[in-house]
Amino acid sequence: MKILLVDGTVFGTKTGALLRQVEKYIKEFDSSLELEILYFSKLKHQILDGSPLNDDMKMMIQKFEEADGYIFATPIYQASIPGVLKNALDMLPPKALRYKPAAIVANGGTFQHHLVVENQFRPILDYFRCLVTPNYVYTHTSHFNENDEIIDQDIHDRLRELARVFVQYCKLSQTLAKEPIDNH
């Protein structure tokens, strides 16, 4: 199975640090999964405005379509996910992520911003009909050192548990037909 770990921002390094840690934990539970981190900061983004897509956006869409599961990492800016992440999701066909496992890790400047994950980002993944794990991990600046390394043991434990549950969702998704009975 191909798992795409999506660093959904063009600024900062905490989301990338979260993904690299989750990547290690996933490998502990299932080393057969093919893991790839997609860093939005390395792509030439364009606004979805009807104009022809550039090569980076075509490649990004292809990676989403070919992946069998996703770990999304997002910062929370101004009580919202970054526009670049929402714009990328807007480029995807509605059935591209259907019945594929997904998990969310996020980082924000205040402890209250964790609600954005549950109230804003999860509904978007629900729209795509992803198999979203029930346990997301939200981190705060205080959970990292000056080099953006995770220093909080509870966060490590929660990331490990997220990885464990995600791997089980991957196994479940292998037996679930991606074509629905209904036409929606």
UniProtKB/TrEMBL annotation:
GO molecular function list: oxidoreductase activity
Organism the protein comes from: Ureibacillus terrenus
Domain of life: Bacteria
Ranges for domain NADPH-dependent FMN reductase-like: 1-141
Entries under Pfam families matching the protein: FMN_red
Protein name as it appears in the record: NAD(P)H-dependent oxidoreductase
Keyword ATP-binding: no
Keyword list, A-Z: Flavoprotein, FMN, Oxidoreductase
